[in-house]
Amino acid sequence: NSNYSESKKKEADAIYKKGKKAIATGFLKWSADHLSASLHFEQAAKMYREIGNDVMAKECFIKYAQSSEKTDVLSCAADGYTQAAFLEDNFEKSEALLKQ
Q: Out of the domains of life, which is the source (predicted)?
């Protein structure tokens, strides 16, 4: 089962990097692609959660929510913050995520 988890982690890492790349800007890319990023971050978050990596899952759910906000898909933003709040151990931080 550790082989499965390791391969899922590598896959999630690759998808996370795609999300980071989608929101990065540079010399030839002037605007962030938040729509693609939100899809990548959501997918990576679910994979990280599946293998029990709650820290990365929470980070990805927050990035999913932030990118969703940038594209005015507020239902997805709310879902991302809610999922992140469920993964947060600290009550105050969890409450802050739910208030976003």
A: Eukaryota
Return the pLDDT at 27.
84
Domain that holds residue 35: 2-99
**In the 8-state DSSP scheme, what is residue 44?**
H
**CATH assignment of the domain containing 64:** 1.25.40.10
Asked whether the predicted pLDDT for residue 37 surpasses 90, the reply is yes
How far is 67 from 9, CA to CA, in rounded Å? 22
Query: Tell me: the pLDDT tens digits for 54-86?
Result: 999 999 999 999 999 999 999 999 999 999 999
Compute φ and ψ for 40, nearest 5 degrees: -65, -45
Q: Cα separation of 94 and 77, whole Å?
A: 15
